[in-house]
From TrEMBL, chain A:
It is an enzyme of class 6 (ligase). It comes from Nocardioides terrae. Heterotrimer of A, B and C subunits. It holds the Pfam family GatC. The keyword Transferase applies. Its EC number is 6.3.5.-. GO terms for biological process: glutaminyl-tRNAGln biosynthesis via transamidation; regulation of translational fidelity; translation. It catalyses: L-aspartyl-tRNA(Asn) + L-glutamine + ATP + H2O = L-asparaginyl-tRNA(Asn) + L-glutamate + ADP + phosphate + 2 H(+); L-glutamyl-tRNA(Gln) + L-glutamine + ATP + H2O = L-glutaminyl-tRNA(Gln) + L-glutamate + ADP + phosphate + H(+). Belongs to the GatC family. NCBIfam families: gatC. InterPro entries: Asp/Glu-ADT_sf_sub_c (IPR036113), GatC (IPR003837). It comes from the Bacteria. This is Aspartyl/glutamyl-tRNA(Asn/Gln) amidotransferase subunit C. HAMAP family: GatC.
TrEMBL record, chain B:
It comes from Nocardioides terrae. The keyword Disulfide bond does not apply. This is Aspartyl/glutamyl-tRNA(Asn/Gln) amidotransferase subunit B. GO terms for molecular function: asparaginyl-tRNA synthase (glutamine-hydrolyzing) activity; ATP binding; glutaminyl-tRNA synthase (glutamine-hydrolyzing) activity; transferase activity. It is an enzyme of class 6 (ligase). The lineage of its organism: Bacteria, Bacillati, Actinomycetota, Actinomycetes, Propionibacteriales. The gene is gatB. Allows the formation of correctly charged Asn-tRNA(Asn) or Gln-tRNA(Gln) through the transamidation of misacylated Asp-tRNA(Asn) or Glu-tRNA(Gln) in organisms which lack either or both of asparaginyl-tRNA or glutaminyl-tRNA synthetases. The reaction takes place in the presence of glutamine and ATP through an activated phospho-Asp-tRNA(Asn) or phospho-Glu-tRNA(Gln). Belongs to the GatB/GatE family. GatB subfamily.
């Protein structure tokens, strides 16, 4: 039975850029473990004859023709942007580095 | 903070660079090259937005590539086909079944907060590409070629350098986000020794030629449609081990690939010989002085939590499809070069110059259009190369077609014009004055073969240079050159030199 440690939850929170207080960690870590337990009970049902699946429908090769379709206008694209400048999305100074 | 980190940062401020020959006395280099190729499909990898370079910001975006809620991706079939053709050209196996995966990270160049990529199930794997360096063949093993999507483009505003550090904020254009990319990853390249920098360059060059021949990408390193990351490590000489690697990102010219390998070898050796440890980190390459500087350290932040993309179904190419695509592969560039060199009768040196000038395809087309390899080479490597150089354009952009060159050469062969007049015909072609024949007529460039006019000019030359005429009468036929030159000058270069010589000989010999 996998157990999610408090440290692992903190790590996941860091990766998700969520700043969790110690109290929040104490609150959330057990909850996540409940979810894991629920999933584990499904794993117990699945036998060796059931292959892991990542898609509910067993189909392959769904492709699109390489044909251009209309885009959004910059106005539409930027409609929900908190900040913009020159038809570009303005974002806070980026710490860390480019991927 | 670890000791290794301190050692690394101190050496980065003032890296000790070890002389290249000294590096090789103590170490064996190992390289790994990751090349990203942007496909030239009309649309993006997972949506129908166009992919043209240089469009106004955020005009080639839709809910899917902006990662808006509810938007669903659909795979571009042409991109899958291009990926498989690249894989086949690299002698890879093509997966019978593979999936896309989400690579999760938070950075504003990907609005979805993940990049759709492939993880442990690449479309192509286990291939190789043979490259030639100074007559020695190196087999570069390809680990994998996988499909993914490009990111948006961030412009950093403020600060002094325009780079990330010191930027106040960033502006994002998502036109590039979602353009199909193929990432081609080599296995560690070992045993290249002193030739490591050249092998790296030769591999990227050969890969570029191959992808270009496939017609699936523009492979313009200067425009970012082909980008290279250079992994390098050193191990004690003869140990056969792999040392800690650095990853130099975005090395974007063939020359830079060679320089980046050379620099990192010298830098790693400086750290290792001083008893330090090389940091596993990404580094930036600087075009101006060929150096690298630290980017982000590989850390636990680089935990991408890959998982299979639930919005896309697996790609399972039938073997019939794979074989059909194999049948569309062009002749491999290296083999084609060898064949053309033999067919054209070029020396190794001539061939090397032709390839370096980017003239091989143009010469091949010109020969195909109906002239000799020698004539085709002469024009592309002299007159047209000079024109390209003077005007700062690529050779295939000088505005003269292979068919026009064939026509110019035909006019020379039938003695309508000579080589010197041909240069004026090319000037007419640059200026768009019509066909070569029309230019000859309009500019009055035809060679004069009319005996009456030539004889008059010869008589004038003999009268002007009696001493020379006397020499020829005395049997010194070589002296005729002076008279021919005088006639050519008098007739503005348009005299038929061979006929002039005949007339002189008829009169004096």
């Amino acid at each position: 039975m996998p157990e999610l440690s408090r440290g692992e939850v903190r790590h996941l929170a860091d990766l998700a850029r969520i700043d969790l207080s110690d109290a929040e960690l104490d609150h959330l870590a057990p909850q996540l473990n409940v979810i894991l337990e629920s999933v584990a009970s499904i794993q117990g049902v699945a036998g060796d004859d059931v292959v892991p699946t990542s898609h509910p429908i067993p189909m392959t090769n769904v492709f699109r023709e390489d044909v251009v379709v209309p885009c959004l206008t910059p106005e539409q694209a930027l409609a929900a942007a908190p900040e913009r400048e020159d038809d570009k999305f303005a974002v806070p100074r980026i710490l860390g580095d480019e991927q | 903070m670890t000791e290794a980190k301190l050692a690394g940062s101190a050496s980065d401020r003032r890296p000790t660079l070890i002389d290249f020959d000294t590096v090789l006395e103590s170490f064996d280099p190992a390289m790994g090259l990751e090349v990203h190729v942007e496909l030239n499909t009309a649309t993006k990898m997972f949506c129908g937005c166009p992919t043209g370079f240089g469009a106004a910001p955020n005009t080639q975006v839709c809910p899917t590539c902006l990662g808006l809620p509810g938007a669903m991706p659909v795979v571009n079939g042409k991109a899958v086909e291009s990926a498989m053709r690249i894989g086949l050209a690299l002698n890879c196996e093509i997966a019978e079944w593979c999936r896309f995966a989400r690579k999760n990270y938070f950075y504003p160049d990907m609005p979805k907060n993940f990049q759709t990529s492939q993880y442990d199930e690449p479309i192509a794997f286990d291939g190789y590409l043979d490259v030639d360096v100074d007559g020695e063949t190196f087999r570069i093993e390809i680990e994998r070629a996988h499909m993914e999507e490009d990111t948006g483009k961030a412009t950093h505003v403020g600060g002094t350098t325009g780079r990330i550090h010191g930027a106040d904020y960033s502006l994002i254009d998502y036109n590039r986000a979602g353009i199909p990319l193929i990432e081609i990853v080599t296995r560690p390249i070992m045993g290249a020794g002193e030739k490591a920098p050249l092998v790296a360059k030769a591999y990227v060059s050969a890969l570029r030629d191959l992808v270009k021949a496939l017609g699936v990408s523009d492979v313009r390193m200067d425009q970012g449609s082909m980008r290279c990351d250079v992994n390098l490590s050193l191990a004690p000489k003869g140990s056969g081990a792999l040392g800690t690697r650095s990853e130099t990102k975005n090395v974007n010219s063939l020359r830079s690939v060679e320089r980046a390998v050379r620099y990192e070898m010298s830098r790693h050796a400086g750290i290792l010989l001083a008893g330090g440890k090389v940091l596993q980190e990404t580094r930036h390459f600087h075009e101006d002085d060929g150096s690298t500087s630290p980017g982000r350290e590989k850390s636990d932040a680089e935990d991408y939590r890959y998982f299979p993309e639930p919005d896309l179904v697996p790609v399972a190419p039938s073997r019939e499809w794979v074989e059909e695509l194999r049948g569309t592969l062009p002749e491999p560039p290296a083999g084609r070069r060898t064949r053309l060199q033999a067919e054209f009768g070029f020396s190794d040196l001539e061939m090397r110059d032709v390839v370096a000038a980017g003239a091989l395809d143009l010469i091949a087309e010109t020969v195909e259009a109906g002239t000799t390899p020698q004539a085709a080479r002469k024009w592309w490597m002299s007159e047209l190369a000079r024109r390209a150089n003077d005007t700062g354009v690529a050779l295939d952009e000088v505005g003269v077609t292979p068919a026009q060159i064939v026509e110019v050469q035909r006019l020379i062969d039938d003695k309508t014009i000579n080589d010197k007049l041909a240069r004026q015909v090319f000037e007419g072609l640059y200026a768009g004055e019509g066909t070569p024949a029309e230019i000859v007529a309009a500019r009055g460039l035809a060679v004069v073969s009319d005996d009456g006019a030539l004889t008059a000019a010869v008589d004038a030359a003999i009268e002007a240079q009696p001493a020379v005429a006397e020499k020829i009468r005395g049997g010194n036929h070589a002296a005729a050159g002076a008279l021919i030159g005088a006639v050519m000058k008098a007739m503005g270069g348009q005299a038929n030199a061979a006929r002039v010589r005949e007339i002189i000989m008829e009169k004096l010999a």
